[in-house]
Amino acid sequence: MTFERWESTDPKENAVLQDGRERVRAVNEAILQNPANPESPHVSFYNAEGALDSGKRWIDGFKKNGLTITGEVRYLDPQVGFRDDGSATLVYCADESKGFSKNVKTGKVDDESSSSPYVRYTTLLKKNGEGVWQTVRVVNERGACKG
Prior knowledge:
Blueprint: E1 2-3, H1 11-32, H2 41-46, H3 49-64, E2 67-82, E3 88-103, E4 109-110, E5 118-127, E6 133-142
Parallel strand pairs: 1-2
Antiparallel strand pairs: 2-3, 3-4, 3-5, 5-6
Helix pairs in contact: 1-3
């Protein structure tokens, strides 16, 4: 995983970027465990509410299908915004053109896809009592970004 331009000179924006980045890492780490682990404590540390539920379902899908991930994914063009209710938005793109799923037992890599490798993620984050910006909602749209 590479994160391009995931830094800000604004401390509040930077905190959102850091915790958003760690959420991505936590989900990918859980998928990489053998078998994939939807109950990983890192996933529930950086996710809450609907994002926690959907993240666990996503990871469990890899587990049920005997898959993991391999290759490289670039996360780029992050944009942070703050809402009047104190929550934050983080929108970014993922370039999955060199990232693939792989069968855990056979090692076969699925590198053929008919869909766009570019995905836009729109996330909503709320700061919890411990000061962590937890992602509470994730919406993704394949093909919405350009490489």
